[in-house]
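Lecture 7 notes: from sequence to structure.

We start with a single chain of 220 residues. Read the sequence below before looking at the structure.
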Amino acid sequence: MTEPSGESPEKRRRPVAVPAAALVAFTAFGITALLGGLNETPEEPEPLGQGAVLDQGLYSTKLVESRVTLERAENRFEEDKRFVELVFDVTNKGDETRTVGVPAQKLEQAYLSDSFAGSLLKINPAFGEEAGPFAFVRSKGGDTQQLHPGVTSQVIVRYELEGDRRPPEKISFEMASFEFRTDFNNELPRWMMVATEAGDSYLPEVKARVTLPVKKGGAA
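Now the structure, written as tokens:
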């Protein structure tokens, strides 16, 4: 049999016009996907406040509070001291005992630390060099510098309020994190601060930005 007049075995399809700009964009998107995907915007550090818990890799850290404390003089020849304190509940998630440490004086030196307090960055407002910081674990057996594996300890980082300086209404700071990996100097993996290369040094990557109100009053 012959096919009906005017029709072919398959229905003819109309060509669809595609704008040149759309074709170029689609092609570029395909090439980008093939080479590893679109560049993603870096995630903003997590904003945290009082009571929040932060996973820092090596440490699990609860932000307890910031407060002003008064330390009474032990005798008449000394003077009372006032401190602004940052209080944390810190759990060492590693297999070794760690020291509390202190925040680095310079940001470009911070990446060398694996201590808890070494992960505190850019504390604002700034305190004078004589003001501290002083950092320790508070326990029933007395203050110590040790963070034992699997144990949650109360860590206090404090700055002295010199003279008649008024305490701030709030205190803010950034926190870094740690990862267990090798580096070019050592084939054995170890805990190191997450950092990115910046010239001839490294700068810590900010895991979270923290703001805490400063509570007035209280004795140390």
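The chain has one domain: 46-215. Keep this in mind for problem set 3.
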